[in-house]
């Protein structure tokens, strides 16, 4: 089987071709049905001095330029709770009171100090700057859970200044 339309194995790309001798019939110009009557269009006073637009020509397109990456390295602040440097600043969480970056694990440890966990309970990040105590009814099945308590940790309206400087390293386009 051919890959084109109508089984002609041309891919449906038939080109109009002129037959020899048709142009000299009674001195008339042979007319391509796709292009229309060129004699009338060429002699129009509106088209004087204009170039004919060609089909399928190349157009100048702007070249893609890669984004400029930040030249300085990511900041590595010190966690005010444990005193160790924060190596993965993108995974840091803002402190509730001061707004300074702290380790994600330090926040979970601080929440677990003030809460008593039952069997099947886990402290987890639930999104939107919130942490929660999650109770798994059937621990082998992670789909069966209930959020028993929510801790509002980061304020969505007040974004910390250190987050803006870090986001420039990841959002370059």
Commentary on this structure:
By secondary structure, the chain is α+β, with helices and mostly antiparallel strands. It has a domain at 89-154 and 161-170. It is 15% helix and 15% strand. The protein contains three helices and five strands. The chain has helices spanning 38-42, 104-114, 161-170, and strands at residues 93-94, 101-102, 121-127, 130-136, 145-152. The strands form two sheets. It has a three-stranded antiparallel β-sheet, covered by helices on one side. It has a two-stranded antiparallel sheet with strand order 1-2. The radius of gyration is 36 Å and the shape is flat. The two termini are 47 Å apart. The mean pLDDT is 76.
Which strand-content bin applies to the residues? 15-25%
- Secondary structure category: alpha+beta
- Number of separate helices: 3
Succession of helices and strands = HEEHEEEH
Arithmetic mean of pLDDT: 76
Outline the biggest β-sheet. Answer: 3 strands, antiparallel
Shape: flat
The gyration radius over C-alpha positions equals 36 Å
The helicity comes to 10-25%
* Low-pLDDT regions: none
- As laid out across the biggest beta sheet, the strand order is 3-4-5
Report the end-to-end length measured between terminal Cα atoms: 47 Å
